[in-house]
Prior knowledge:
- It is a single chain.
- The protein is α/β, with parallel strands linked by helices.
- It has helices spanning 48-55, 73-82, 99-108, 114-127, 143-154, 173-188, 200-206, 224-231, 246-253, 274-283, 298-306; strands spanning 2-12, 21-32, 37-41, 63-68, 84-87, 161-165, 192-197, 209-214, 217-222, 235-240, 259-263, 266-271, 290-295.
- It folds into 2 domains: 2-221, Rossmann fold (3-Layer(aba) Sandwich), CATH 3.40.50; 233-295, Alpha-Beta Plaits.
- The strands form 3 sheets. It has a 6-stranded mixed beta sheet with strand order 5-6-7-3-8-9, with helices on both faces. A 4-stranded antiparallel beta sheet has the order 11-12-10-13, covered by helices on one side. It has a 3-stranded antiparallel beta sheet with strand order 2-1-4, with helices on one face.
- A hairpin with a 2-residue loop joins strand 11 and strand 12 (266-271).
- Helix 3 packs across helix 4 and helix 8 (224-231) crosses helix 11.
- The relative contact order is 0.14.
Amino acid sequence: MVWARGLRKAYPSTGPGQRGDVEAVRGIDLDVRPGESFGFLGPNGAGKSSTMRMIAAVSPPSGGELSILGLDPATHGPEIRARLGVCPQEDTLDLELNIRENLLVYASYFGIRRTEAASRADELLEFVQLTEKAKAKVVDLSGGMKRRLTIARSLINNPDVLLLDEPTTGLDPQARHLLWDRLFRLKQRGVTLVLTTHYMDEAEQLCDRLVVMDGGAIVAQGSPLELIREHSTREVAELRFGVGEHEALAERVADLADRVEVLPDRLLLYTADGEETLARVHERGLDPVAVLVRRSTLEDVFLRLTGRTLVD
């Protein structure tokens, strides 16, 4: 569905005193298979959105090879875009129209007949659980409802691939879980999903495979479970001490774990058995203000690979 080799994207530098181009995507390789959910995980500025714009055939690559649905976006851009659904990071809904009218107007851009558009709109409103709000103005919707409407709009042309750029940013937990459920149902229908996110739990929930991006490059790829097994331990013991104490205390516990990460507000001890590690910490006379034992996540993978957290 998506194939890339050595894909690059560079932008002219605009800052004072800067020369040359700024390379946002630095020669990445991609393979997205039919029917899978493929993710780009990384912080803001990692190159995720630039990659998505190239896949959406709205931003030409600066180098490398790219094929979307077996077609070259440089020569078949309109044909590719007609078969894609795009859910942008920012909602671009028409605030003056009601929910149903937003779908009907968008359908007209694809040349869909009004009777068919009406049928698809009703089906999609039911799918995203907005049927009862069909005549409501967009301006009156909650953030979660707007995101669900944006996804419904992106499905109006029955796309082969749905592109989602940070689909749940800014949503409360309940709205996020409802959106995850809708996306999972789409995957079950055979729609190929390509999404970007900086939420590790979202990536673990939605993605069959993903790539971890940092500084425009891919630093790791695989399934969430494969990445955690390869780059982290089974458990993590989090220790909070007094302000400014973590750097010095890291040396006193370094031999108790496979590795120790020092964050501004805590120590992370990577170990196979977090409870046993905590017990050994207490045996050394250390008394953390707070402790937590948890399983490793994709954020731990990212911290291992890049030296910083996903929200940096």
